[in-house]
Amino acid sequence: MFENLTVLYAEDEDFIRENVVEALEFMRINVIAVKDGYEAYIEYLKQKPNIIITDIEMPGMSGLELAEKIRKVDNKTPIVITTAYTNVEYFLKAVELQLIKYLLKPITLIDLKNTLNKCVENLKDTTSIISLNSCSTYDLYNHILIVEGIEKKLDAHERQLLELLLKYRNHVVSYEQIESTIWEDGMSNAALRSLVRNLRQKLPEDIISNISKMGYRINIK
């Protein structure tokens, strides 16, 4: 059930992080483990995980600050907050940020599974399959591109670019936004052009437009 999931997990305590990562990997989940909110936000932009699990209190950027930052651009990705104690103010903030669950430590395997099940149901409730045209679709949940009945394999950068363009479909995505999402160490113009060219070859014709000196746009009716 969880095989296709990628979970971003942020926890500053090594022992807890290692135990939870082990449990997630036992469930055959792809895990991106980080130690603080800043790292988590960078990985969120780069990897676009299916689910985010974050401790509430971490050095630098807290879990709630991380969730608030993500919710400014993304109100669909399930976010779970973990904490060692209850706090009414935190709970109300979690509700405001549309978080899936407020998970109390110590985290048991049963609680973790139940939380993931709830996240998966939430993902299924959102429209995950986007029609690119009358005979082409992209499944955001399973990362599957179908063009005229044929599955087209995407590499990691192609998938990230396609999902970024689809997130802002029919609007221009700036070169800067593409760079910050896909390339950690900066991108060259040649690298971007090559990536767009390769992605275009796998998509319906003329679906991606280059807007001069601004960025790219995916056009969906």
What do these coordinates show?
The protein is of the alpha/beta class and 221 residues long. The protein has two domains: 6-125, Rossmann fold, CATH 3.40.50.2300; 129-218, Winged helix-like DNA-binding domain superfamily/Winged helix DNA-binding domain (Arc Repressor Mutant, subunit A, Orthogonal Bundle), CATH 1.10.10. It is built from eight helices and twelve strands. The strands form three sheets. Strands 2-1-3-4-5 form a five-stranded parallel β-sheet, with helices on both faces. Strands 6-7-8-9 form a four-stranded antiparallel β-sheet, with no helix packed on it. Helix 1 links the parallel strand 1 (6-10) and strand 2. Helix 2 runs parallel beside helix 3 (63-71) and helix 6 crosses helix 8. The longest helix is centred in the middle third of the chain and has 17 residues, at 109-125. It is globular. The two termini are 33 Å apart. One of its GO terms (cellular component) is cytosol. GO terms for molecular function: phosphorelay response regulator activity; transcription cis-regulatory region binding.
